Amino acid sequence: NSINLAIIAGSASSEHDVSLRSAQTIIDALQASHISFTPLYLDKNNNLLLIESNNYENLSPSKSVVLKKHAMNEHFLYDSDGTIINKIDLVFPVLHGQYGEDGAIQGYLEILGIPYIGSSITASAIAMDKELTKIYLKSLGIPTVPHYILHRDASIPSYNTLSENLNSVVLFVKPARCGSSIGVSKVSNQEELTIALQEAFRHDGKLLIEPALNVRELEIAVLEDATSIQASSAGEIVCTQGFYDYTQKYDTSSSAKLYIPTQLNSEILQQIQNYAIKTHKALNCRHLSRVDFFLTGDNQIYVNEINTLPGFTSHSMYPLLWQHAGVSITDLVSRWIHSVLA
Ligand code: ADP
Ligand code: MG
Ligand code: MG
User: Fold this and answer.
1) Which domains are present in the chain?
2) Nearest residue CA, atom 16 of ligand 1?
3) N or C: which terminal CB in the chain sees fewer CB atoms within 10 Å?
């Protein structure tokens, strides 16, 4: 009676395509393992479909399915005629951003009573919201970048006012609840600010404006299983031009370089690893998270954000940091399965 894991990818999120690439990397790894899995696709209208080809990148016509409770602690996948396709023991929502990383799918799975890998509703929702994350981290004494919150209907301060308030001529504008740098812009005058606000408001009704810091960008992968919580070594992103935007994150010809692990003073490394674990625990995250840092020239550390379902593409930091430590994607998934079913 083997365990069957359902992978869910896609969704109406603006990170739909990234999710498919993450899920593909994961199922490619699982195909060479003893873990049995069923790949499911949430389409751009959030309809659940079965992927019969093990291929998320070239989606073939797939049939509509329903996940349902069959009996106490027993769940099945049904087709639209109500015929059982197979048993599902747990779900790994490999979804980024809205619907998948914000507590929505987690709430759905809670209602169905299906166990799942990753953070629960509240942790997901707080981590997805960059303002709530900062409020939380501040209460723990973990330093975060100063910010200004702007709601869609509020009056908009001028560039000069924001620049004075945040003590910086270059500013970052970002949606409060997005990822993959979608809707994020760097601005240095009124005209750029106006365009950036318009773009960011397309993605979220709440924005953050921050001083653009001249910093090193460091990331720690947190791995929690049934018995421990571990912080990886630090990865670093170096962008030779601009910032770590969508293109630099996902284009194979990206000019951004990843250093895994990076050279870091051992006290700084220990401090950011501590902050990573403290952040993961404080938000009540589960199984996995990637905590992202900024390090200034005079060694001031800031937590920029925490991602509860970090990218899993073939050049994403989370799987690469653990691979470097000798933990493969299959090992990761296998540990989480055991931890969920323990
Ligand atoms: P996302 O959740 O979309 O990844 P981030 O807050 O991580 O949002 O912003 C995306 C990228 O923008 C970061 O990886 C970094 O390169 C740049 N960035 C964001 N905020 C700042 C800031 N205050 N100073 C300098 N760079 C920033
Ligand atoms: Mg993010
Ligand atoms: Mg980020």
Assistant:
1) 4-116 (3.40.50.20), 125-143+214-341 (3.30.470.20), 148-211 (3.30.1490.20)
2) 244
3) N
